Amino acid sequence: MVDILEKEGPIDIYWDNVGGEMLEAVIDASRINTRFIESGMISAYNSGNSFPIHNFGQIIGKSLSFHGFIVDHLREK
Questions:
Q1: Could you give the CA distance from residue 41 to residue 63 in angstroms, rounded to a whole number?
Q2: Is 13 helix (H, G, I), strand (E, B) or coil?
Q3: Which of 71, 64, 5 is closest to 39 using CA atoms?
Q4: Following DSSP, what letter does each residue of 16-74 receive, concatenated?
Q5: Span of the secretion signal (predicted)?
Q6: Could you tell me the mean pLDDT of each successive run of 10 residues in the chain, 77 residues long?
Q7: pTM reported for the whole predicted model
Q8: Which of 15, 30, 44, 77 could form a disulfide with 11 if both were Cys (CB 3.0 to 4.6 A apart)?
Q9: pLDDT of residue 77
Q10: pLDDT at 8
């Protein structure tokens, strides 16, 4: 996955439903001001263990934006 990100990157916008190692790799491959849409963390659903993201400091260093996305929040009440 890292080799594909290096070949196709850098990333400008990323829709994430996986989390874990994949999210960490994409943060590394992201450009300054990349926008992240977070709709899940399936990599931790079945294992019960979350993967610690070691490069979260890049949120500040690269001015990354993370936005949660839950369908129920979009429905009219």
A1: 22
A2: strand
A3: 71
A4: ES--HHHHHHHHHTEEEEEEEEE---GGGTTT--PPP-TTTTHHHHTT-EEEE--GGGT
A5: none
A6: 86 92 93 94 77 89 93 74
A7: 0.82
A8: 30
A9: 58
A10: 87
